[in-house]
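Let's do one together. I've listed all components of the complex below, 356 residues spread over four lines.
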Amino acid sequence: MKLTPITQKFVLHWGEMGSRWGINRTVAQIHALLYISPRPIHADEIAETLSVARSNVSTSLKELQGWGIVQVAPVLGERKDHFTTQTDVWEMLLVVLDERKKRELDPTLTLLRECVMQAEEQKAGGQVEDEAYAHKRLAELLDLVETMGGWYGQVRSLPRKTLVKFLKMGSKLSKLLS
Amino acid sequence: MKLTPITQKFVLHWGEMGSRWGINRTVAQIHALLYISPRPIHADEIAETLSVARSNVSTSLKELQGWGIVQVAPVLGERKDHFTTQTDVWEMLLVVLDERKKRELDPTLTLLRECVMQAEEQKAGGQVEDEAYAHKRLAELLDLVETMGGWYGQVRSLPRKTLVKFLKMGSKLSKLLS
DNA sequence: TATTATTTTCAGTAAGGACTGAAATAAACG
DNA sequence: CGTTTATTTCAGTCCTTACTGAAAATAATA
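Okay, and this is what the predicted structure of the assembly comes out as:
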């Protein structure tokens, strides 16, 4: 698969962005490549296009499948596995957000709850002023994370159409809320 | 500054989370430490508490100041610089989001616009079917990023109170939109 | 079942980023 | 000013993660 200057620019940038958000550069590049590819492609082709080892591609594809944004797409008369990603960007975004919520937000929620609960228990016995302060901070942070999580759940349950309309509604948002 | 088991757990977790989102572990730990500290603290104390080199703390604090979530707080009768972070978690979140938007979303927006523009130009001359496909994908992605950016701008301009109310409004959201 | 094609695993290596300690710089004090 | 205190810079080192290539495992074919 040959990259035009435009697509190459995109693939490189996507890799760069990925790495800024804790996603391996190659993984992100592969994702970009699949996204702009008009048909499913196989691992060898990816390896060649991006100049990385075949084994690296294998691992990265597994990772992307784990995220739920890449899947195997059988191609008629081909033995090799071919891969695609969903073309609907909104769907893609939601899948990624779901996964990050599960992997990162939820564990943080759990941890903060533990911290705040233990802090509550200690309050029964005497505690230093500084500890009380820290505990208050933790409780506030917990509230924020819970609120965000709950809000996302709401948004997530909207029908796709409504969701996109909501995001696109521009200055009407503030009117709506007042 | 001595950490209780609770606060220590929090600081470590925060560092861990940071590194998953592309933020240096130590930087995130320092931030956590400042967040739960009832009073401004100086670099030496941070270094000691977290067992890292003084110079490392210096760099990390600069980084945090660059993000706008840590500032120098002069303490009466002290020569050393002392540091704090805002106690309002919502404020903190918004500051970070602003900064990430500026650093990562906006450049992506610029790049995608360039790509899509160049693609438009090519359409004038003849172009292969596959290129046309890729360009369509890029245009869709651009639309998503633009929409997200615009929406964030809206949300960002809400008064703090309204914003928090909005995020906390639970199941009323879907009712509001229908 | 043997042969060939394809994918995965994994030990070793490379690359990138984080961290340290020492030296340089800057700021405060007397 | 000279001295002391505090902060920053930076070259070298360490550590983590990414990546490779070869070998093992799996799957398809005949």
